[in-house]
Design brief:
Shape: flat
Number of helices: 6
Order of helices and strands: HEEHHHEEHH
Strand content: 15-25%
Largest sheet: 2 strands, antiparallel
Distance between the termini: 48 Å
Amino acid sequence: MAFREIFTAETHTKEVEHTKYGVTTLKTEKVVVYPKFAAIQNLVADYCNEIVGDVRSRLNENPEDNNDVDDIIQKANIDKFDRASYEFDKLDSVSKSVKFVLSTLVYSNVQTDKKGKKYLVYDLDLNEFCEPTFMPLKQVYNTIVDDLGDIDNIYDLVRGIDAKASEYNPMYM
């Protein structure tokens, strides 16, 4: 009963201005509010702090204590130690979610309108059905590794992607 009472939502609508390509439109957006959540907000914050503290304490542990984790990883990958590097697919170490995002990039071109504003247009000439064509995953992955593989922190990664986008490289836009 208390759970249902705290997480009972109230919905409101508000009008928001959106500007796209110089055209301003008013859209009505739905806003969901949980007014009674404040009753447990401090408990949730304390719980989150416990979790973060636990993770931070694990990060500060002595690395010598993590030998058992290293052993587990080594045993899980023992079959890879006697194989040459060319026998591995470099995408094996990439997570499924990253593979999914990279495989959804579409061939596109940058075009300029009469006012000089640049925008992306799908390249529909690549297949006979005039539909957008997805870039091959290996091509996207190799391009990203070649362009951004030497970056070692998130700030330089963002700057690198912004630089590629400012060159109007459609893959980074």
